[in-house]
Design a protein that fits this description.
Residues 27-157 form the CBM-cenC domain. By secondary structure, the chain is an all-beta fold. It is built from four helices and 63 strands. The protein has six domains: 8-184, Jelly Rolls (Sandwich); 199-297, Immunoglobulins (Immunoglobulin-like); 302-457, Galactose-binding domain-like (Jelly Rolls); 462-545, Immunoglobulins (Immunoglobulin-like), CATH 2.60.40; 549-642 and 837-919, Galactose-binding domain-like (Jelly Rolls, Sandwich); 646-828, Jelly Rolls, CATH 2.60.120.200.
């Protein structure tokens, strides 16, 4: 198929392991500094792989001599290109990444190498609705012989799965890459080398609304023995102060801890500056002056936003009451204009006094109201501004209390008019404020205002942790919040019913550790701040994680001497005398490509060809585990098998695997399972499952073909990954000729399960698809192609990746016409993988007293299914086992109780956990 021509593609998913550096950057790349991995001329290192196609060649190596950061970098040598200069050679991350429309992203990396322009771009990893691939953004860079950091920052124009890529058009070049970073937000220059200064400040640099009782914290420099703390409100003092000239801002000298709690409370609404100097240990005791950071403390009172205004007066459409609360006419310095359309002006209603009423979104503890009176240019003559006003308040809009009578100052009638009346509300609780106009500054009988602003004291508890709507919260998490101003206590309500919350505790502080929460549950909670009255808080929610991890296989290393290898924890046949082997013989011992989450999974090789005819990997825990906490009722693990080369089940379902660069161009690489057809006929099949992880152009479907030669003429109706919208009808019209296709259909995209069909009538061939096996749509052109009987008719599969196999499951395979013979299996142009021999999969648990139970997987063919399959096991099935004292867990292939000679294969296990799936609530 047509492909993007790129050299270096960095692809990743949002599930990738993240790294947070000292600058607070959350790096989405796995193994960003290439510190994991060894070897020269390798195909992959942890988190990254070499991928080439269209005859491009190159070498990938770990370089321990040229690194700019850490101990290793990666070297890429481009050694060959196909005729014509077009080539495709990829060094890609093993995961892709979803970007969101409107979000800002940055990718940066250190690079040096041969000269010549390189284009850096995030490219679509799937077609958009218009069928386009292409780049979301791009930047041209020019490498030099010296290390430099290059970056691209862009705002994503769409929600899309992307590949990061470096496009290089010149062969024969060598490049070194180090410390790749990808993160949300604007570019932040990388800091490499030994970290000599403090960083990661808390409050973070530029923070606002910082509590007055906040403590300072930081991450120390690499060689720091002690720390000097400077804090004050004058930048110059913080910048210039030293031990010899403390200027009253050196508040702590030579402290060993990396936190500092200022004495007393900080001032309201003040910007503070601070600096942490790192002091090395004797004998040199070098002082490294720190960066200057700043933060601003909380205000005493905050503006109420989203205020509604209404009046009983009669106004022009452009001079309504909402003009008084929408900021119209105010500039950045809070100075009001003289434009009448920025103000409210009204005539009183007949036989009534004029009033204007303001409504807030909730009850607030009001501090004051700022008033900008009516301010047109001729206000000194007109006198429309309010003068004597009665102010009332209400919590419900029905019951009103008079706060008092106030005189509003007259406006200046200038365009730099600032608020000149402040009404003190004294902390009254109100959701509604009403101003009744008793008189104005003139005799005209019309009255107006420019703007009012209400300020409130934050009496409510706020800033909940977990955040409102948080997902996957640890059930052991303590709840915390920012205290309501002047609160002496907080009443905490918690439950799983938002309408029926129960008081669970009264807290003096601002955190609460609830009794045991349940996995997979949405909880609602509310914190009422108690001061001179009770301030009822908002109802927040969070959802607990469904599972707690037992083993995600991320902690294992290749350090055998330290006992950190995967087979040091998961014991295999080398010790337990079964047919199993955990991990690989050569490092890396864990699987680094086929992973469910994170960067590693456990490869479990089984060989049941000899006694005892079953294979087990077992883990004994250092101490018995309790899997009954937090309402747990389920053991969960993810298993990926390998499809057999070809097997037909009793019900006619077919499992098969394949590898190959493509079914395309002039010669094909694939597995073909076929029978013979003479004359007219057809084949129909349901593609139940297609493993698309090797490439978006994985193809699996039905084919009619002249013979099993690589360049044979054929027609092929296939399902794909995301390539071509999930389906393609393609043909090769002459032996050894180029292939053509029709895809990206307007009613797509499509995904398995889906039906496909190819028909032959004389020399006319057609391809069809169907969502249900009943309603069929012809795809592409009607093909006129002469083939000599008998032709081959069957199932074709290719991975579009010479380094990774794919698999498929077909069902409802049906023929018409004179189709004869048993299934034959052809390995077209490339040796095909043997795959797994199908055998049962089971899990056994044993408790601390030796009682055990075994649970078999309900799908007897599970080890023959590639791709990740979740297995949820009700803990109740482990009959007789004390699940509060689990001592050993075993994963096995075969049968303990009825062992019989079988075959061999490999499965992958990842993310073993216990918990309670949300659906069982």
């Amino acid at each position: 198929m047509k492909c993007e021509h790129v050299l270096l593609i960095l692809m990743f998913l949002s599930t990738a392991a993240i790294v947070v550096n000292a600058q607070g950057i959350v790096n989405l790349f796995d193994n960003p500094g290439f510190e994991e991995g060894t070897g020269t001329d390798v195909q992959e290192i942890p988190g990254w792989r070499l991928y080439s196609q269209e005859n491009a060649t190159g070498l990938l190596s770990i370089d321990t001599e040229e690194a700019i950061e850490g101990k290793q970098c990666v070297r890429i040598e481009v050694t060959g290109v196909p005729a014509g200069g077009a080539w495709n050679f990829r060094f890609d991350h093993t995961r892709r990444f979803s970007v969101e429309q409107g979000e800002t992203y940055t990718i940066s990396f250190w690079l040096k190498g041969d000269p010549g322009p390189i284009t850096l771009s995030p490219s679509r990893a799937e077609q958009n609705a218009a069928g386009q691939w292409g780049n979301l953004a791009q930047a041209v860079i020019n490498p030099t012989p010296d290390w430099q950091e290059y970056h691209l920052t862009f705002v994503s124009p769409e929600d899309r799965l992307v590949m990061w890529q470096l496009l290089i058009s010149n062969p024969g070049q060598t490049y070194w890459v180090d410390h790749a970073r990808c993160y949300v937000g604007e570019y932040v220059p990388d800091q490499i080398g030994p970290k000599l200064r403090a960083d990661s400040p808390f409050p973070f640099n530029g923070a606002t609304d910082v509590p007055r009782d906040a403590a300072l914290g930081w991450s120390p420099g690499e060689f720091a023995a002690t720390h000097d703390v400077y804090l004050g409100a004058v930048f110059e003092d913080i910048n210039d102060a030293a031990r010899t000239d403390p200027r009253g801002v050196l508040l702590s000298q030579g402290q060993t801890v990396t936190t500092y709690d200022p004495p007393g409370l900080l001032d309201f609404g003040t910007t503070y500056y601070w600096r942490i100097d790192q002091v090395n240990a004797p004998p040199d005791s070098t002082i490294f002056k720190g960066n200057i950071w700043g933060f601003t403390t909380e205000l005493f009172a905050y503006p109420v936003v989203n205020v509604l205004a209404a009046s009983n007066g009669i106004s022009e459409a452009t001079a309504g009451p909402q003009n008084t609360v929408d900021g119209s006419g105010l500039n950045a310095d809070d100075q009001h204009s003289i434009a009448a359309t920025d103000m409210w002006l009204a005539n009183p209603p007949d036989n009534d006094v004029l009033s204007i009423e303001f409504e807030f979104d909730r009850v607030y503890k009001l501090h004051e109201m700022l008033v900008w009176n009516y301010n047109v240019q001729f206000e000194p003559v007109l006198g429309f501004g309010l003068k004597d006003v009665t102010i009332e308040c209400s919590v419900n809009g029905e019951d009103w209390a008079v706060l008092g009578d106030v005189e509003f100052a007259r406006a200046t009638a200038r365009s730099n008019y600032e608020a000149n009346t402040a009404v003190n509300f004294g902390g009254v609780a109100a959701q509604f404020i009403r101003l009744t106009v008793n008189s104005g500054w003139g005799p005209m009988g019309q009255f107006g205002l420019s703007e009012v602003r209400f300020l409130y004291i934050p009496a409510l508890a706020r800033e909940p942790q977990p955040a409102d709507g948080a997902m996957d919260v640890d059930p052991e998490t303590a709840l915390s919040w920012r205290a309501g101003r002047d609160a002496t206590a907080h009443d905490v309500y918690l439950g799983s019913d938002a309408e029926g919350l129960s008081l669970v505790d009264a807290i003096v502080g601002s955190s609460f550790a609830p009794d045991e929460l349940t996995f997979g549950t949405t909880y609602y909670w509310r914190v009422d701040a108690v001061s001179d009255e009770v301030w009822t808080g908002d109802v927040w929610s969070f959802s607990t994680q469904e599972y707690a991890m037992i083993d995600g296989f991320e902690a294992y290393t290749d350090d055998i001497d330290a006992g950190e290898a995967i087979f040091d924890t998961w014991i295999d046949g080398w010790v337990n005398n079964t047919g199993s082997t955990v991990g690989y013989f050569d490092a890396p011992f864990a699987e680094r490509t086929i992973v469910h989450n994170g960067r590693q999974s456990m490869p479990l090789l089984y060989d049941n060809t000899s006694s005892p005819f079953y294979s087990e990997a077992e883990r004994t825990f250092a101490s018995p585990r309790n899997w009954t906490v937090n309402g747990a009722d389920t053991l969960r693990l993810f298993v990926a098998g390998r499809a057999p080369a070809f097997v037909e089940m009793a019900d006619g379902t077919i499992l098969m695997n394949a590898i190959g660069n493509d079914i395309w161009d002039n010669a094909d690489q694939f597995r073909y399972v076929y029978k013979n057809l003479s004359g007219n006929g057809s084949i129909t099949a349901r593609v139940d499952m297609l493993d698309v992880s090797p490439d978006m152009w994985v193809k699996g479907g039905v084919m009619i073909r002249q013979n099993a030669d690589p360049g044979a003429v054929n027609v092929f109706m296939a399902m794909t990954g995301s390539g071509g919208g999930g389906s393609t009808f393609q043909q090769r019209m002459t032996a050894g000729g180029a292939s053509v296709s029709q895809h990206t259909y307007t009613d797509g995209p499509f995904t398995a399960p889906y039906w496909v069909r190819v028909t032959r009538e004389d020399n006319t061939l057609r391809g069809y698809t169907s969502p249900d096996g009943e309603n069929w749509t012809q795809r592409g052109d009607t093909i006129a192609l002469a083939m000599t009987d008998p032709v081959l008719i069957g199932l074709a599969l290719t991975s579009h990746n010479v380094n990774q196999a794919t698999s498929a499951q077909f069902s409802n395979v049906a023929f018409t016409g004179n189709v004869t013979g048993a299934w034959q299996v052809a390995e077209v142009s490339v040796a095909q993988p043997a795959g797994n021999t199908v055998a049962p999969l089971y899990v056994a648990l044993e408790d601390a007293t030796g009682k055990s139970a075994v649970v078999m997987h309900p799908d007897a063919n599970i080890v023959g299914r590639s791709g990740w399959n979740e297995w949820q096991i009700p803990l109740s099935e482990f009959t007789g086992v004390n699940l509060s004292r689990v001592d050993t867990m075993t994963i096995g292939v075969g049968s303990r109780t009825s062992p019989t000679a079988g075959g061999a294969g490999t499965i992958y296990v990842d993310d073993i956990a216990f918990g309670k799936p949300a659906m069982t609530q």
